[in-house]
Amino acid sequence: MLENKIIVEVNDLTNSDFENSLFFDIVESTIEKSGIECLKRKKISISLALVAPEEMQKLNSQCRNKNEVTDVLSFSEFGADDLCQNKEEEIYLGEIVICPSYIEKSSVLQNVTFEYELAYIVSHGVLHLLGFLHSEKMFSLQEDAVKKVLNKK
After folding, report:
1. What totals of helices (H) and strands (E) does the chain contain, helices first?
2. pLDDT for position 17
3. Could you count the other beta carbons within 10 Å of the beta carbon of residue 137?
4. Domains and CATH numbers, the chain
5. How many C-beta atoms surround the C-beta of residue 20 within 10 A?
6. What average pLDDT score do residues 32-37 get?
7. Which strand (E) or helix (H) includes residue 74?
8. Is 79 helix (H, G, I), strand (E, B) or coil?
9. Taking CA atoms, which of 33, 72, 144, 148 is between 20 and 30 Å from 2?
């Protein structure tokens, strides 16, 4: 368990019926599994927006020049090297935007539960906020964080 306080501000623009505790648990587990020591005693906040496919496509087009729907976009407040340079006690890591309907379709294709895929994608977004790039280590951390959260239910 982390010694810090984590705030996950959820902005559900899809009117979904999600338990915010799942989002909090996966964010906490992912930060813990990341092993980034400088975060252990900080008050951390993250914004999480849930959007419809049309909005996600628009954001993906504007931010990544890809005119297609995607599962997650992360907007970090820090570069990978700057995160631990911040001496403030409170730190805003950034915003994660997810598209639940896209994630639901993906869960069917991946042959996993929607809850698992949702947790996996949120964990993925958190790791990007922490400066991780796609790698075996990143995917392994995601897997570990999700298993920890879903196995205690």
Report:
1. 5, 4
2. 79
3. 12
4. 5-147 (3.40.390.30)
5. 12
6. 91
7. strand 72-76
8. coil
9. 72
- Amino acid identity of residue 146, one-letter, is V
Task: Compute, in degrees rounded to 10, the torsion defined by CA atoms 48, 8, 92, 94.
Answer: -10
Q: CA quadruple 82, 48, 20, 30: dihedral positive or negative?
A: negative
Best CA proximity match to 127, nearest among 114, 9, 136, 106: 136
Q: Each residue of 85-107: pLDDT tens digit?
A: 888 889 999 999 999 999 999 99
CA dist., res. 2 & res. 113, Å (int): 28
Angle at which helix 136-151 crosses helix 114-129, to 10 degrees, equals: 130
What CA–CA distances, in Å, run from 15 to 18, 67, 102, 134?
9, 24, 15, 31
Mean pLDDT of 34-57: 94
What backbone phi and psi angles, to 5 degrees, belong to 7?
A: -120, 125
Q: How far apart are CA 134 and CA 4, in angstroms?
A: 26
Q: Is 123 helix (H, G, I), strand (E, B) or coil?
A: helix
Mean pLDDT of the chain: 92
